[in-house]
Amino acid sequence: MKKYNEKANKYITNPMQRIKIERDVPMELASVRSFFGKVLTQMESGDSVVVSDGKERNQIQALAANHGIPITTRSIGNKRVRVWRR
């Protein structure tokens, strides 16, 4: 059934005729552009890295939270922090 749209000055068809619903299509992983994001995605469970200060720890924690990667951090002295992927 077509409906006349006065503002566009044309006929509108059913939009569902133009859209095809697909099932079982795997979702691609989101691209990671930052250095720490690439490090986190390459780490496996139990791997750890040492970062130089709290600012870098905060960056890693934010990236891990955004990408759903579980991590644990501990201060190891001299403003250094160890980050484990759980």
Largest sheet: 3 strands, antiparallel
Helix content: 25-40%
Shape: elongated
Spatial strand order of the main sheet: 3-5-4
Would you list the SSEs in sequence order as H and E?
A: EEHEHEE
Strand content: 25-35%
| Strand element count | 5
Low-confidence stretches: none
Instruction: Report, as a whole number of angstroms, the end-to-end distance.
Output: 56 Å
C-alpha Rg (nearest Å): 24 Å
Number of helices: 2
Averaged pLDDT, please? Answer: 83
What structural class do you assign from the helix and strand content? alpha+beta
Structural commentary:
Helices cover 26% and strands 27% of the residues. With 86 residues, the protein is an alpha+beta fold. It has a domain at 34-86. A hairpin with a 2-residue loop joins strand 4 (71-77) and strand 5. The radius of gyration is 24 Å and the shape is elongated.
SSE layout:
Elements: E1 3-5, E2 10-12, H1 35-42, E3 48-51, H2 54-67, E4 71-77, E5 80-85
Antiparallel strand pairs: 1-2, 3-5, 4-5
Brief summary of the model shown:
This protein has 2 helices and 5 strands, in the order E-E-H-E-H-E-E.
Question: What tags apply to this protein structure?
Answer:
5 strands, 3-stranded antiparallel sheet, 86 residues, alpha+beta
